[in-house]
Write a structure and sequence with these properties.
- With 400 residues, the protein is of the alpha/beta class.
- The chain folds into 3 domains: 8-162, Rossmann fold, CATH 3.40.50; 176-265, Rossmann fold, CATH 3.40.50; 273-380, 3-Layer(aba) Sandwich (Rossmann fold), CATH 3.40.50.
- The chain has 14 helices and 14 strands.
- The protein has helices spanning 24-32, 74-88, 106-117, 153-162, 200-211, 224-230, 245-251, 261-268, 272-280, 301-319, 353-365, 373-380, 384-387, 392-398, and strands at 12-17, 50-56, 60-66, 93-99, 122-127, 143-144, 182-186, 215-219, 237-240, 258-260, 290-294, 324-328, 342-345, 370-372.
- The strands form 3 sheets. It has a 6-stranded mixed β-sheet, with helices on both faces. A 4-stranded parallel β-sheet has the order 8-7-9-10, sandwiched between helices. A 4-stranded parallel β-sheet has the order 12-11-13-14, sandwiched between helices.
- Strand 13, helix 11 (353-365) and strand 14 form a beta-alpha-beta unit.
- It is globular and about 75 Å long.
- The two termini are 44 Å apart.
- It binds guanosine-5'-triphosphate and magnesium ion.
């Protein structure tokens, strides 16, 4: 991904699903106009999900995802089906590809019920229309395409473009501030920080402050005191990286609102309302409880260090309990959460909103408290109250 591109996690994810040989890969190639996925008449050609970023007007930047057949069998097949189900968890729009000659069956019914269960808007596409002679369904909704001769592909793209979009009006910080406000962003730079750039939540916040007509002042925690004393005007808000929360909280006068990037990010992803009461559940942990620590990606050294080293230590100290910690990362997230007393998830900056919300929903359905790193760290350091004070409904929740 180029640095100027829309991050993967902010793109609309369009997943193509169906049984083996329905022509999913062929349709994906036709839609993207690229020979991106391998096509063959052998069943089970696609063995791993294939992701491709592209511009799809009028939807804008999207990720197109080709998946293995959902009817795959055997032990390898079962693994592929599992991967396909994981793709579903981040799919914003689903396309069910049906072989027009074979029609719909159990596999298609199962996929349709998964789309409905997960509330994913979907389109049904009958492929191989070139082979059909007069057997088309008399259903105005059904879309007939041929990946081979390209018929119907243009209409498919138009329908994808018209599909209901996720709420893109949500903002990371812009709705909390006024034009010409000073916003101080505190970003510690330690050995784990990426070389020569800022991490995604910081970039996104800076951009949103500027979009709001406000003024972003960016400094390390070691320069915060000096920044505040020379700014000449009281900042409307200080936002810090969770790692420096203690020091920043001490250096920021009480009357200045203070929060963290992870709290803003959790709100942006729509999970703050679950993560705050989730963090409060730490107080109820017992000896021998099993704790799941879930990372969204496998390559953020900074998160990895927090998740596997610092966080377990902080949680142990905070609760004073003997806990056993278990870890998962990337797209692996256990379907059965019942062994765990509580879940701590990373900020999820590399996961799209649907996937993060899906994980929270799994936890909520199974009655397991879940929070994220930033909210947990704030809670452990006794500053969660301060960092959510600007969201009164949550502050009330916390004091219950
Ligand atoms: N005639 C015709 N053949 C098609 C069309 N689309 C795909 N095919 C053929 O159907 C076969 C399967 O196509 P794929 O795109 O590999 O199907 P898939 O659904 O991705 O299959 P798996 O990856 O095995 O799950 C290939 O031989 C394609 O050439 C079409 O529109 N018309
Ligand atoms: Mg395929």
């Amino acid at each position: 991904m180029g640095l100027n591109d829309t991050p993967l996690s902010n793109r609309v994810h369009i997943g193509f699903f169906g049984r083996r040989n329905a022509g999913k890969s062929s349709v994906v190639n036709a839609v993207t106009g690229q020979e991106l996925a391998v096509v063959s008449d052998t069943k089970g050609t696609t063995t791993d999900p294939v992701l491709k970023s592209m511009e799809l007007l009028p939807l804008g930047p999207v990720v197109v995802i080709d998946t293995p057949g959902y009817d795959d069998e055997g032990s390898l097949g079962t693994l592929r089906v599992r991967k396909t189900r994981q793709v579903l968890n981040k799919t914003d729009i689903a396309v069910l590809v049906i072989d027009g000659q074979e029609g719909s069956g159990d596999c298609e019914e199962e996929l349709l019920s998964l789309f409905r269960e997960k509330e994913i808007p979907y389109l049904v596409v009958y492929n191989k229309a070139d082979l059909l002679t007069g057997q088309k369904l008399d259903d105005g909704e059904a879309l007939y395409v041929s990946a081979k001769d390209g018929s119907g592909i243009h209409e498919l793209k138009e329908r994808l473009g018209a599909a209901p979009k996720a709420d893109k009006t949500r903002r990371i910080i812009g709705d909390l501030i006024q034009p010409s406000d000073f916003i101080v962003l505190v970003t510690p730079i330690d050995s784990a920080a990426p070389k020569g750039r800022m991490i995604l939540p910081q970039q996104q916040a800076i951009r949103d402050v500027i979009d709001a007509g406000a003024i972003a002042v960016v400094a390390k925690e070691t320069e915060l005191k000096e920044t505040l004393s020379t700014l000449g005007r009281r900042p409307a808000l200080v936002v810090t990286d969770s790692q420096a929360f203690e020091r920043v909280s001490a250096d920021t006068p009480e009357e200045i609102p203070l929060t963290s990037f992870s709290i803003l990010m959790a709100r942006y992803k729509g999970i703050l309302d679950y993560a705050v009461p989730g963090a409060a559940a730490m107080k109820r942990l017992q000896n021998k409880d099993r704790i799941l620590i879930a990372e969204g990606c496998t390559h953020h050294r900074q998160c990895g260090d927090i998740g596997t080293v610092k966080l377990p230590e902080w949680i142990r100290n905070y609760t004073g309990k003997e806990l056993s910690f278990h870890f998962c990362s990337g797209t692996e997230f256990p379907e059965d959460l019942s062994p765990y007393a509580m879940i701590f998830h990373c900020g999820g900056c590399m996961l799209n909103e649907r996937e993060v919300r899906f994980r929270m929903k799994c936890a909520s359905d199974q009655g397991i408290p879940m929070t994220n790193y930033g909210v947990a760290i704030a809670c452990i350091h006794g500053i969660l109250g301060r960092s959510i004070a600007m969201f009164p409904h949550l502050a009330a929740e916390l004091s219950r």
